[in-house]
Write a structure and sequence with these properties.
Length: 302
């Protein structure tokens, strides 16, 4: 069967979050999770928690639980007409599903703490959500919570190139880790979790210790410039605009290449109707090649 063309490849909205904290000796750390080794797209890569935006993430039901940002405000920030708040809700849902972190406030306005009996109860909630026995919004309602969307700040925008096996329009956010919650991977979609400084993550990738994909690398390079969570959050909160970055694919006798804006040949690459790479393995190989080229160790300026 022929691979899908650019005209029939759907682009799914997606959202991911760089959850950060200040470490006493190491400085700013970010939470990363490891993809299941059987994932179609670069299995085993370390990424930030996130995923596709689901229908339940948007609409009046979800919006009623949100505090700190309206759908109109969220949509304006993202540059879309409506439905922007669904990206914020998707981040919170995916963070809970994949990493067990729940950014919410209780009925008395206090930040949710997952300790003692409450922690045990939310372990059960998470299992029910991941097993599709309950919805994320059902947990929010049952626990009398509000979703703290005002604590999530829009940071970056990446669109998967035409010709990819799957395409996502992904918004990256920044959020501060809650003090009294512990991250834990779900052992399904992701199989490991780790708090790490951006510089260490980039170094380990260069040394071959972990796999990173190029949007992750570029965002790690961006946040590595900040010494503290406060500095990073301020920069994200006050950013005037967030440009969309869409890599492009070239397919030739020499193989598959992925180009970024500014690369030679980018403007001519993969025009409408061009051939797709043909298989996931070829695309993954191209992703690894551009990822290696993007992380040469000289992009971070203090």
């Amino acid at each position: 069967m022929a691979p899908p063309t650019t005209s029939d490849m759907a682009i799914r909205p997606a959202a991911t979050v760089m959850l950060v904290r200040d470490h006493a000796t190491e400085g700013l750390q970010v939470l990363m999770v490891k993809r299941n080794l059987n994932s179609d797209f670069v299995g085993g890569a370390y990424v930030f928690p996130g995923g596709a935006v689901d229908p339940d993430d948007g609409g009046t039901e979800a919006e009623a639980f949100c505090v700190g940002r309206t759908d109109a405000e969220a949509s304006e920030i993202l540059g879309i007409e409506t439905g922007g708040l669904a990206y914020w809700v998707a981040v919170l849902r995916e963070l809970f599903e994949e990493a067990g972190i729940f950014l919410a406030a209780t009925a008395d306005g206090e930040i949710l703490e997952l300790t003692g009996d409450t922690a045990a109860r939310f372990v059960e909630h998470r299992a029910a959500v991941n097993d599709r026995r309950a919805r994320f919004l059902d947990v929010v309602a049952e626990e009398g919570l509000t979703l703290e969307v005002g604590t999530l700040y829009y940071f970056a925008h990446w669109i998967t190139p035409e010709g990819s096996p799957r395409r996502y329009d992904t918004r990256f956010f920044v959020a501060t880790a809650p003090a009294h919650q512990t991250a834990a991977h779900d052992a399904g979609e992701v199989i490991a979790d780790e708090w790490i400084t951006p510089a260490d993550a980039l170094r380990r990738h260069r040394e071959g210790g972990i796999e990173l994909i190029f949007p992750t690398i570029k965002n790690l390079q961006a946040i590595a410039r900040f010494s503290t969570v406060a500095e990073l959050v301020h920069a994200a909160e006050t950013a005037e605009s967030v440009p969309a970055i869409t890599p492009r694919i070239t397919v030739s006798n020499e193989g598959v290449r992925i180009l970024l804006p500014g690369d030679e040949g980018y403007e001519e690459a993969f025009s409408q109707g061009s051939s797709a790479p043909g298989d996931t393995a070829a695309f993954n190989k191209a992703v690894k090649a551009i990822s290696s080229a993007a992380n040469q160790g000289d992009e971070i300026v203090p």
